[in-house]
Each structure stands twice: as C-alpha cells, then as structure tokens.
Amino acid sequence: MATKVVSGGTAGRVVVVGGGPAGMMAAIAATRAGRQAILCEGQTRLGLKLLASGGGRCNLTNTLPAEEFMARCGRHGRFMAPALAHFGAGPLREFLAELGVETHAPDARRVFPVSHQATTVHAALAGELARLGVEIRLGEPAGELLVEGKTVRGVATAGGPIPAGAVVLATGGRGYPSLGGGRTGYGLARQAGHR
User: Fold this and answer.
1) How far apart are CA 60 and CA 14, in angstroms?
2) Staple 46 to which of 19, 66, 87, 190, CB 3.0 to 4.6 Å?
3) In what helix (H) or strand (E) does residue 112 lie, and over which residues does it extend?
C-alpha cells in the first residue's frame, strides 16, 4: 500500500490515470456527471494506441453477440461480461455518433468509423474533452496512489500530489510500450490492494 497521505481531498474531483480511449471516455463521463476531471497521461500526447488501432483504421468493436465475442477471447474472456453488459457495441456506437463519428461494419463483423481513420475518433474524443473543460496533464504519469487508511484519496505525479474523491485507473496493458503500454497500472492497482 502507498504511504503518502493527503488530507482535505476534493470530493468532487476525479483523477483519471491514462490518456487512451478508456481514460478519455472516463474523463468525459465523469465531467458529464458533474465531477471535475483531471486526466493524467505519461506520454506527451493522448491516445497513441488509439491512433495505431486497426492499422490506423480504428477497429472500434464488433457486431458479435457478447457471449460469442467473450468465447472467442479464450478462457478468461468472461471478465468482460460486466463491461459489455453496461457499455457494449451498441452504446459505444451511439456515444460516438453523438460526438459526430458515424460507424459502419463493412464486413458485417468489425466496426470502423466511416472515415476508416483513427484520427476521426481521436479528434472527436479530444474535442469533447476540450468542450467540457477537462484538465489534461500530458507527460505527467501517476507514480503513486495517495492512500488514507484503506481509501484512495488521489495520486502523486511528477507535478505534485493531486487530491481527489475518486481515481480511475485506465492505463491499459503492457503491449506496445512505445505507445505508452507498460506496468504502471498494475503497480498502482497493487497499491490499492488489488492482486
């Protein structure tokens, strides 16, 4: 567990760690829910993996029923069940349409933006962050969670501590380290008691 303690954290603030599509969407959702969001990304640009996804064409999701999709992901595929039940392919496509990104499934399975350009999705997400006034801190990775007792109260970054009422870890996996993949999120999750 982390040892730093920050008192007087800002209850209405959410710190999102990770500036990929999940982090960008978490900051958007938090702000739309009336919270102040701060998005911390260790890279100098948001969404680098997003820009490379689908060979730059941005394979967003698929049209398979959730059960079939999870089965195709192997024995651990079921871990996605709660996420897919809450925000599956349909809601994702609706969310993107709301941001002006039309999607289609040219092969009746894989879903892409109609433009077939990841930059279209990236620009839409970045534009919504700007419209909502989300504070973005680039080149400022979270190095440690700020924990008080058993409660996470914020994060410590190279720029200093950021007290918050909630922290979202959206750092992604270890793949493609040159695009921001690494072990940071795993270490932060362990600090919160996760295995």
Assistant:
1) 26
2) 19
3) strand 110-113
Residue 191 predicted with pLDDT over 70? yes
Burial of 1 (0-12, 13-18, 19+ CB in 10 A): exposed
CA contacts within 13 A on the Cβ side of 179: 14
pTM of the model: 0.89
Which tokens in the block code for residue 26?
């978490």
Residue 149: is its pLDDT beyond 60? yes
- What's the length of the chain? 195
pLDDT tens for 91-147 read 999 999 999 999 999 999 999 999 999 999 999 999 999 999 999 999 998 989 999
Nearest to 97, CA basis, from 117, 118, 120: 120
Q: Measure Cα distances from 162 to 54, 98, 142, 159, 166 in Å.
A: 34, 31, 9, 9, 11
Would you tell me how many other CB atoms lie within 10 Å of the CB of residue 10?
Answer: 17
In three-state secondary structure terms, 157 is strand
Question: Which amino acid appears at position 55 of this protein?
Answer: G
Model pLDDT, residue 181:
64
Judge contact between 103 and 96, C-beta under 8 A: yes
